[in-house]
Structures are given as structure tokens and as C-alpha cells.
Amino acid sequence: MSVPVRRAVAADAGELARLRQLSLTCPAVPWSRPRDVPDGPWVKECQQVFVAMLHGTDTAAAFVVDAAPGRVASCAVGFLLPRLPGPGSSKPFNGDISTVATDPEFRRRGYARAVVTALMDWMAVRGCKRISLSASPEGEPLYTSLGFVYDEPRMTWRVQ
Questions:
Q1: Beta-sheet pairing, 154-158 with 149-151
Q2: In the Cβ-directed half-sphere of 23, how many Cα atoms lie within 13 Å?
Q3: pLDDT digits 0-9 by tens, 95-135
Q4: Domains of the chain (ranges plus CATH)?
Q5: In this predicted model, what pLDDT tens digit does every residue of 26-71 receive, in sequence order?
Q6: Edge-to-edge order in the sheet of strand 71-82
Q7: With contact defined as beta carbons under 8 Å apart, do 30 and 138 qualify?
Q8: 83 CB contacts (<8 Å, ≥6 apart)?
Q9: pTM for this structure?
Q10: Are 24 and 136 within 8 A, CB to CB?
Q11: Beta partners for residue 149, in sequence order
């Protein structure tokens, strides 16, 4: 079964901010009680940043799976970071995956895999040499299965 993934647009900013807040609740100790992440002005600020980010820049992207009209089930957000050419590569960017989140009621359906894969593909096409992320203990098996390796202190996947 193919998971329908689409690139997020500015109208998704509220849902992306909500899922970012959800991602920050990931417990420090694997499979324990989620951390409390309070609401506050930062959530609205995050939403505003998403609006700006998704409204014209080609150095940031988010990919989503919809749960229903106006509701996102899963997302992956990432940035292209300029890099200087070196002897090993003249590729212009490194990628950073900053947020991956799936609403609890939609987990175990392959949504996170689908949005992360779409984001990795988008980054690779744009000239990334390396894509990195910080993984929760629960997320590590997914990222390992996608080819990321643990590279202190972050997991990294290298574009071939």
C-alpha cells in the first residue's frame, strides 16, 4: 500500500506547529512517560515561521500525510544548509531534518517512513552531500532502516 505524501504549504503551518510540539514530548528515557511541553507564545511563533518558510523559500520543506481535510497525521521538516566545496565533494548543501512527528492515533502505518523518505529524496535532488538528524530512541530503528548511521552526536545518512 502506498502512503499519499504531499509537500506542505503555508496553510499547513498550524498543524506543523502542533506536530512539532508533539515531537518535543518524546521522553528522554525510551518508552517512558512523555515529557510535558507547555503551550506558550513559542507555538504561535513556530506557526509564523512555518508560514514564512513554506511560502517561497526553496531551502526548507515539509512533507505531510493528511488525516483529514485541515488535519495532518504525520510530518517531516527539513532544511538545506549551505556548505563550502571541499576535496571530497562540491555538492552545495548538507541537509538537516529538524522535526518528524506522527499523531499517536496514526502510528504504525508507515507514515513517518513515507514523509522522511520524501524529505530525503527532496534534499538529495537539490544537492545534499549529507543529511543529519537527532533521533529519539523510538525513532532510531526507522532511521537505521533508512540508512542513517550513528555519528556522534547525531545520526547521519550520506547521499550516494
A1: antiparallel
A2: 23
A3: 999 999 999 899 999 999 999 999 999 999 999 989 999 88
A4: 6-158 (3.40.630.30)
A5: 755 555 556 666 678 889 999 999 999 998 778 999 999 999 999 9
A6: 6-7, 60-68, 71-82, 93-102, 128-133, 154-158, 149-151
A7: yes
A8: 91, 92, 93, 94, 129
A9: 0.88
A10: no
A11: 156
